[in-house]
């Protein structure tokens, strides 16, 4: 009963555990992925136009999320983490994740890498960060949805330890394509984890 009250109070009054603050606080810094230097940072409102540009490049001119959706997500700093990767001041990739104590789930809401930088480990790196954060927060799983037709992304997720958990019929807005539900149980450790 006390645990339920604590969760309700935190949601109502935007109170964040010190643990969440510490784990979700990312300092902007240089990272190396496959021996190439990139700049990792928390996404800012000023990044939204470039994030939309990446979506257009990845999704054939469409933007599954609009600027209002991204802005809404970035405002919620107590249970969301959005990261961007840059090289020479060009935004190349981003990821978003929501962390839910009640469901013990870290849900990857969005991830995209500009086409000319795909297959260079950027997506793998960003997802591995979210898996690490979920483990640090003691959450039992990381989940995401991926288009049924996106077999390349599904292979990446499976390489990271995700398993197919079901199909969501007509999940995607617009074309109503089915989504594959994928889940990684965080108790499973892998040799290549961060």
UniProtKB/TrEMBL annotation:
Gene from which this protein is expressed: rimI
Domain of life: Bacteria
Protein name, UniProt field: Ribosomal-protein-alanine N-acetyltransferase
MF terms in GO: N-acetyltransferase activity
Lineage: Bacteria, Bacillati, Bacillota, Bacilli, Lactobacillales
Keyword Acyltransferase assigned: yes
InterPro entries: AcTrfase_RimI/Ard1, Acyl_CoA_acyltransferase, Bact_Acetyltransf, GNAT_dom
Residue intervals of the N-acetyltransferase domain: 38-187
Protein's UniProt keywords contain Glycoprotein: no
The entry's keywords: Acyltransferase, Transferase
């Amino acid at each position: 009963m006390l645990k339920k009250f604590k969760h309700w109070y935190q949601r109502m009054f935007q109170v964040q555990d010190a643990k969440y603050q510490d784990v979700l606080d990312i300092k902007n810094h240089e990272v190396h992925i496959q021996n190439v230097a990139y700049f990792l940072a928390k996404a800012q409102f000023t990044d939204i136009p470039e994030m939309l540009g990446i979506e257009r490049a990845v999704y054939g001119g469409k933007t599954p999320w609009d600027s209002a959706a991204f802005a809404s997500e970035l405002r919620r700093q107590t249970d969301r983490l959005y990261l961007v990767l840059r090289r020479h001041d060009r935004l190349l990739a981003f990821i978003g994740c929501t962390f839910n104590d009640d469901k013990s789930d870290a849900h990857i809401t969005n991830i995209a890498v500009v086409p000319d930088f795909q297959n260079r480990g950027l997506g793998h790196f960003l997802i591995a960060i979210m898996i690490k954060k979920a483990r640090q927060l003691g959450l039992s799983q990381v989940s995401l949805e991926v288009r049924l037709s996106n077999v390349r992304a599904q292979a990446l997720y499976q390489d990271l330890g995700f398993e197919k958990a079901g199909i969501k019929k007509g999940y995607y807005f617009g074309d109503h394509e089915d989504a594959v539900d994928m889940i990684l149980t965080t108790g499973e450790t892998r040799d290549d984890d961060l």
